[in-house]
Structures are given as structure tokens and as C-alpha cells.
Amino acid sequence: MRIDVVTIFPAFFDVLEVSLLGRARGAGLLDIRVHDLREHTTDRHRTVDDTPYGGGAGMVMKPEPWALALDEIAAAGHDAEDAASGPLFVFPSPAGERFTQSLAREWSHEPHIVFGCGRYEGIDERVFSYAATIGRVRLVSLGDYVLNGGEVAAMAMIEAVGRLVPGVVGNPESLVEESHEDGLLEYPSYTKPASWRGYEVPDVLLSGHHGRVAQWRRDQQVERTRMRRPDLLPE
Ligand code: SAM
Questions:
Q1: Cis preceding-peptide flag for 193 (omega within 30 of 0)
Q2: 168 and 114 in a common domain
Q3: Can you give the pLDDT at residue 187?
């Protein structure tokens, strides 16, 4: 899978060198390229923002550098002229649809995703319309709160998607039983020692009885979800 990131702070993505994703990059499973939006400015000050039309506080990211950056990336990765076969452009935004595990799974099959990280009050709205002429566009929110920029959101999405790409996580079975994969939160996990500072591992997990363990875990999933995230359960 190829992933491009456009940002005014490329250093945010240095951590993609480490851990599982770093290893996946080294193994050629993930081709991640980070681009500095300022490289696509044409003025001496490398300006990427300007005042908003209609007034108001803050600055808005100018459309011209974005179009140049997206054009270059789309041209490098795709021969086709039509938007449907172009890259998937993901613009993190608190005003977007919510990012979920099912979206991460869907995107893990994409050959090419481009993340466009906004700053200030966001990106000129016309950039999204333009991007839709050379690829597919999604505006996606990490959650119902406001971050300073799209970098942290893009990083979270890259990690959630990247770990689902075949081969990135060594044991694919460990991806199946996780929270949100079947609509529920995951059951509690324990490791050795069985007794620690007066806290005991539940007896059923020491029983060696696979059926009872499976039933206990399922019950825990439902109970946890009911307590912590009742919104995930059907009416
Ligand atoms: N004025 C915008 C609004 O109210 O919708 C918020 C702009 S925010 C300060 C700057 C950038 O941070 C956004 O363009 C977006 O890229 C990113 N961002 C902030 N919160 C986010 C969230 N919850 N999910 C994804 N991206 C977010």
C-alpha cells in the first residue's frame, strides 16, 4: 500500500520509522511518503495561509499549494485520467464523518491513500471539490473534539489502517478478536503471575476449558460494552 501525507510539519511523521509500521516500511509492505506543503508555494515567504473571506478570526489554508501538491502525488501514482481510479484523498477534519474500525478495514484494501493535513481554521473548501476531480475524497474526524492540526489524526488513521494490511502484524489472528471488530469492546486480558499483589486472575481462565473460557469472554465483552459504550449496542 502507498500512503502519501501532505503537511506543513513533516517532522510529525518521523515516528513512523519505529515499531511495527517502521518494520513494515522496511519490508516494503507500506510505502509511506511525507511531503512538505511549503515546497509547493511560489512566493518568497512560502505562504500557505491567508485571511478568511467574510471576515472572522484565524487564517485559512490557500488552495494553490494544495492543488500543486495533490496534482504531483496523483500524477506520480496513477496513469488513469478518471477520478474513480485515482487515489483516496483523506482530509482529517472535526467536521467530517467519524473514523471507525470498519473504515480502517475498508481502507486497508486501498492501493493508494493521500492524507491532507489541515492547520489554522482549515483548508479552503474548494480544494476538496478539486481533489474529487482527480481522486475520491473523504473528510474524516478522529472524534468530537478539535485538534490543532490534521497530523495527529492522520497518524492515528495511518496506524489503524496500516496494521490491517496483510503481513504488517505477524499473527493475523490477533487482529480478529479486538475491540470494535465485532461491534463490541474486547474482553479483559491477563498474563502471569496468576496472583499479583492480592489480585487474582479469574478462575475460569485457569480452567483449561475452552468452551467456558469462550463463553466468559463473550459475557465480558457484552457487559463491558453495556457499561462503557452502550451506544455500540443495538436498541
Ligand atoms: N475550524 C475548524 C472547525 O471548526 O471545523 C477546525 C480547524 S482545526 C483547528 C485545524 C485542523 O486540525 C483541521 O483542518 C483538521 O485537519 C485538524 N483537526 C482538528 N480536529 C480534528 C479532528 N477531531 N479530527 C480530525 N482532524 C482534526
A1: yes
A2: yes
A3: 97
Point out the annotated binding site for S-adenosyl-L-methionine.
Answer: 118, 142-147
User: Does residue 116 line the site of ligand 1, with CB under 6 A?
Assistant: no
pLDDT average, residue stretch 160-176: 90
- Structural domains in the chain (count): 2
96, amino acid identity: G
CA–centroid distance, 16 to ligand 1, in Å, is 22
Q: Is the pLDDT score of 81 beyond 80?
A: no
Taking the C-alpha atoms of residue 73 and residue 83, their distance in angstroms, rounded to an integer, is 13
Whether residue 213 sits in one domain with residue 135? no
Shared domain for 100 and 188, answered yes or no, is no
Tell me, yes or no, whether 144 and 197 share the same domain. Answer: no
In angstroms, what is the span from residue 39 Cα to ligand 1's centroid? 22
Respond yes or no on whether ipTM tops 0.95. Answer: yes
Is the CB of 146 within 6 Å of ligand 1?
yes
Element (H, E) at 199: strand 199-200
Domain that holds residue 218: 177-232
Q: What percent of the chain has pLDDT over 70?
A: 98
Q: Is pTM, for the whole model, over 0.90? A: yes
Q: Average pLDDT, whole number, for the chain?
A: 95
Contacts 24+ apart (CB under 8 A), 72-75: 72/40, 73/4, 73/6, 73/35, 73/114, 74/114, 74/134, 74/135
* Domain end marker among 132, 154, 172: 172
- Ligand 1: centre distance to CA 20 (Å): 27
Q: Closest ligand 1 atom, CA of 95? A: 5
Does residue 31 sit in the same domain as residue 89?
Answer: yes
| CATH number for the domain harbouring residue 99 | 3.40.1280.10
- Given this model, what pLDDT does residue 77 score? 67
